[in-house]
Amino acid sequence: MKLKSLVGVISVLLMMLTFAACGNSASGDPTTPQGGENGLSEATAFLVNNEVSLRRVGTETGYGTWNLDAYYKQTADIALSYEWIPIGVGHTPGVVTSGADSFRGHYDGGGYTISGLRINYASGVDAGLFGQMVGGSTVKNVRLNNVNITGTGNTSACHVGAIAGSILNNCIVQNCYVSGSINYGASNYDNPLQSFSVGGIAGDSYSMIENCYSAVNVSKSNNQVAWFHCGGIAGSNSGTVRNCYSTGNVSITEIYGGGIVGYNFGTVEYCYAKGNISCFANSGYIGGITGYNFNTAANNATVWHCTALNSAVTKTGSNPSGAGRVIGYMYSPITLSNNYANSAMTVNGSAVLDASLTPTNDINGQGITSTDWNSASFWSDTVGFSSTAWSLANGRLPKLAWE
């Protein structure tokens, strides 16, 4: 009897412990993972698997909720059915918010696609899948298919890119792909104190963009803005753009445009571009890789190990200066080395004279032909592309290793 009583007591105690554990798990304690998810680490990231959950990202407050600081992991392809409100700019289109409302978390797209991202952005908004990234946030492995971003910015600056409008210090965007179109159309606005940046991946970046490619056509359809930056990867860059390529066209009415970056304060390296670059105004600076390059002792602007494969860089109007195969213009001398360009490329309708003899540190880069760019050894041994970041093979252009 004593043994049976002891067994009974133990059974009761085990039941009590089980109920207590269940109660704690259901209590909403943010430190206790709910089904393995609490957003506090990469291992316990919130899972994003449909449009409803994607639109939930960053909308909650409080520790362990779907807030702007949390970790997220996409686990399925997602098709968007109506206009997107960027993550990290508040929850009403056109409302300008403070840095406290910016994305500070971590989003892993898992290699899945998000299709049909559509934004009609308004003045003063940082627009994209994410509006503004700050505080060491990361976005990686995101695939955006068929983006369609349009809008105006008539009263204050705005930055627009498919992945993020603005990427501030200490953030990283990596292993991302975008396709579609971004068009900026301002009207009756010419304030030299404001700047507008539009790019395939990001509008304005002070951080790292690496291992990304863009098939986005980027355009500006009105000439009313004094400071406009437009690029295949980033509109303006004060950080580093590395191991990226762009196949989309860049078309501006003014003022800075480039196949990779429009306005470059930072470093652009190990990149190539294919899309045509055009400017339909006298006041413009355009190049196959970067447009306007601004160098100071603090930022040491650099363009190297890049290849411009564009068919044409074209600036129409009465002032044809400010156009080049690799870069358009240097405000002060920048670091230029080991850059190459399609020898058949036309600049303002004409081929560059002595193209094959142009040095690699010239704004036009050394001329190359299809024999060169269809050779894996050209990219690895001559340009210096890494086999870790790139997939190289004869008979085709480089692809990123993750493609």
Commentary on this structure:
Strand 1, helix 2 (51-56) and strand 2 form a beta-alpha-beta unit. The chain is mainly beta and 403 residues long. It is globular. The strands form five sheets. The protein has a 16-stranded mixed beta sheet that branches. A ten-stranded parallel beta sheet has the order 1-2-4-8-12-16-20-25-30-35. The protein has two domains: 1-32; 38-400, Pectate Lyase C-like (3 Solenoid), CATH 2.160.20.110. It is built from four helices and 41 strands.
Structure described in brief:
The protein is mainly beta and 403 residues long.
Beta-strand content: 35-45%
Overall number of domains: 2
Low-confidence segments: 1-35, 91-96
The biggest sheet, with number of strands, parallel, antiparallel or mixed sense and barrel status, is: 16 strands, mixed
What's the CATH topology label of the largest domain? Pectate Lyase C-like
* CATH class division of the largest domain: Mainly Beta
Q: In which range does the helix fraction lie?
A: 10-25%
CATH architecture of the largest domain: 3 Solenoid
Rg over C-alpha atoms, rounded to the nearest angstrom: 25 Å
Mean pLDDT: 84
Q: What's the overall geometry?
A: globular
Q: Helical stretch count?
A: 4
Number of DSSP E strands: 41
Which structural class fits the helix and strand makeup?
mainly beta
Distance between the termini: 70 Å
